[in-house]
Amino acid sequence: MDQTPHQGDALVIGAGIAGLLAAHVLSRSFATVTVLERDHLPETPRPRRGVPQGRHAHALQAGGLLALEQLLPGISDDLRAAGAPRIDFCVQARLHLPYGTPPPRDSGIIIQPASRPLLESVLRERVMRTDNIRIDQGCTVTGLLSERHRHRLRVTGVRLVRRNTRAPADERSVPGNLVVDASGRASHLPDWLAALGLPRPAETVIDARVGYATRAYHLPPGRALEWSAVFQPPHAPHSPRGCFVLRVENDQLLVTLQGAGGDHPPTDPAGFDAFTASLHGDVREVLQDLVPISSAVRYARTANRRLHYDRLRPWPGGLIALGDAVCAFNPVYAQGMTVAALEALTLAALLADRTQASALPLEDLTQAFQRRVARVTAWPWQLATLPDRGWRLEPPRSLPHRGARWYLDQWQRLVPQDPRMFHDIARVTNMLASPLLLARPRHLIRVGKAAVRRNPRPARPRTPPPTPASIP
After folding, report:
1. Mean per-residue pLDDT for 437-462?
2. Which tens digits make up the pLDDT trace of 113-162?
3. What is the CATH number of domain 9-59+113-205+302-384?
4. Are 252 and 56 in contact (CB under 8 A)?
5. CATH of 211-299, one of 3.40.390, 3.30.70, 3.40.50, 1.25.40
6. What is the location of CATH 3.30.70 in the chain?
7. What is the 3-state secondary structure (H, E, C) of 304-370?
8. What is the Cα–Cα distance from 73 to 66, expressed in whole angstroms?
9. Rounded average pLDDT over 399-421
C-alpha cells in the first residue's frame, strides 16, 4: 500500500514526549492522527501516573533542544515564557567528576532546565494547535489488529479498552493505516507481536542497579546561586553516590539523589540529608536554609533496556516503535528525551523523502525506520552502558571494553584541568557531536602523555662493570 500525503489515519500509543513529537511529524502525512493515552491529562503542569519519573529532575540536552527547535520552531521561546531560562551548560552547570570539577567557561552549549510536567505541558499545547491531531484520553491499548497483505502481515489498528467510573469497561477496535508504539518502558509490544504469531525481539539489558530519590525545595525571591544545575554521576566501582540538581520554574530547586550498585538514597528527611552530606560540591550548604515543599519520592526502574526490532524478521507493515519502547536508558544520563526528539526528526526525514517514500510501500518504509532508530540509539547506548557495566559483579572480559573503560577514566582525570577537553566532552554528552570527537589526535596524545607521567616505566637496574677482583 503506497502512502501519499494527507491520506489515511495514524494511531500513536502514548502522549508523552516521544508520542507527541511523533504525532506532530505524522500530521504532515496523514489525514488524521489520534494519540491514545491511558491517563486523563492534567490541564496545568503537574506529575501524572503514566510518567512515574515526572517528579524527578529531567534534563533536555542541548542536542535535544536543537532538535525540538527544528521540529517546532519557537518552542524554546515558549519554554522561556513558561519560566525555563536558557543557560550555558559550561557556565551555569557544575559537573562534579571523580577527579575534580572543571571551572566555568563560555561554550555556547545551551540547555533549558525545566520540570518534566512543564516541558510536557508546553509541548502538548504546541502540538495540539494542529487541526488534524487529537488525543483520546482514558483508554488502554490491549493489542494489535492485523491482516495478511501480499503474503505479509500488516498491522491495521489496535484493540483498546476504555474504563469509566460510571460505566463498565468498553472494549472496541480502532482501525489505522499506521500504528506507532510510543508507550515507553511499559510497552507491551513484544507480547502483542507474539500474539500475532511473530517472534519476540532480541533484548539487551544492562542494569547498574541505580535508584534515586527526589525532593523539591523553594528558593526565596532574590536568592542567588552560582549555578542553575549540578551533575555528579556515580563512578564505578568505588563512588556509587551522585546527584542531579536543577533550578526550574516557579523558584523551585529539584534535588535528585542517585545511588548505583544498590546503594539507594533513603526518603526519610534525616536519611535524605545524610546522603546529601556525602556528596561533593556545595549542594548540602545550599539546602541548609531552604524549605522543602515536597516529601522525597523514590524511583528505581533504571536498567538500560534495548529491544532489537531492527533485527526482527519479518517486521509487520503498518507499525513502528520509538522512544523508550525501543531503547530505554538509565535516566541518570538524561538521554531519553533527546533521543526521542532525534527519532522524530528521523521519521520526518524518511516521510519527507518523497523519492523513497513513493517508491516504498508503507510496510517497507516502517522497516526502514526501525533500522534508522537502531543507528540513532547506537552511540547513546554505548555512552550509557559503558560506565554502567562497571557495576556488574563480574569484571569486564573483552579487551575493547576494558580499553574503553580505561580511556574514559583518563578523560575524567584530565577534564578538570583542560578547557578544550571539557568543551568537547560537554558536546558529546549533550549529543551535539559523536563520541569519535573524544578520539581526536590531540586528545589521544594528551591522554597518553598523562598516563605515562602517572605510570612511568620502571628503570632497568644497571649492572655495574666487573672489577678485576670479580673476574675469575
Report:
1. 81
2. 999 999 999 999 999 999 999 999 999 999 999 998 777 899 999 999 98
3. 3.50.50.60
4. no
5. 3.30.70
6. 211-299
7. EEEECHHHCCCCCECEEECHHHCEECCHHHCCHHHHHHHHHHHHHHHHHCHHHHHHCCHHHHHHHHH
8. 9
9. 89
| Residues 6 or more apart whose Cβ sits within 8 Å of residue 466 | none
- DSSP-assigned beta bridge partners for residue 149: 152
pLDDT given for residue 355 in this prediction:
45
pLDDT greater than 90 at residue 26: yes
In the block, cell 542497579 appears at 209
